[in-house]
Amino acid sequence: MLIIGIAGGTGCGKTTVVNQILNELPEAEVGIISQDSYYKDTSHLSYEERVKINFDHPRSIDFELLVNHLKDLKGNKTIQQPVYSFVKHNRTGDVILTNPRKVMIVEGILILTNPELRSMFDIKIFVHADSDERLIRRLKRDITERGRDLNEVLTRYKTTLKPMHNQFIEPMKAYADIIIPNNNYNTVAIDIVKTIINDKL
After folding, report:
1. Which of 72, 70, 157 is closest to 107 using CA atoms?
2. Cα distance between residue 124 and residue 117, in whole Å
């Protein structure tokens, strides 16, 4: 099994890169794990308390479960990937049955911050985008998909997202094998990734 880690700041275009890689490989050979599914269970907290959690800090992620799930997949076992709701700031209780595949893509803003998880990646990719571009994408997404208002998103960006990005995410470029500057048609970088994947498989 080949495990690819794809990191980068919020709104940097990780999903675009993931989809470009998916388009290059047979569907039955690729599986995806999203770091967002592994936010810690916060059922013991009230909604008001959950809203105040710093979701851009590594301690908000259940890395232990994520690492164990990857180990299970490598051992050819099916896992139950949690389902997370950004509206409720908590896991829903549902799961996604995820089967082992030849290639597993793990994507998320904080996946390179955990040394044990990082050591499991055969290829580490960091998607880079300009901070203004990331903010614009984050605004659009949070307002349309997650029911947030403009002030809430901007306040969170200033007080949490930006400082956390500078402290935890940007420094992770040092661990990346490939840094992809995000524009929608970075075909050279995707071709390189595709070549590495085919070579390793």
Report:
1. 70
2. 11
3 state SS of 196: helix
- pLDDT per residue of the chain (201 residues) written in tens, 0 to 9: 999 999 998 877 888 888 888 888 888 899 999 999 999 998 899 988 998 888 889 999 999 999 999 999 999 999 999 999 888 888 998 999 999 999 999 999 999 999 999 999 999 999 988 777 777 877 888 788 777 888 887 888 888 888 888 999 999 999 999 998 876 567 788 888 888 888 887
- The Cα 47–Cα 143 span in angstroms is 19
CB 127 within 8 A of CB 105: no
CA proximity to 106, closest of 13, 177, 4: 4
Whole-angstrom distance, CA of residue 72 vs CA of residue 56: 26
Structural tokens at position 142: 């949070």
Burial of 103 (0-12, 13-18, 19+ CB in 10 A): buried
Between the alpha carbon of residue 135 and those of residues 16, 45, 95, 120, 180, the distances in Å are: 16, 29, 30, 30, 18
Half-sphere exposure of 75 (CA within 13 A, CB side): 8
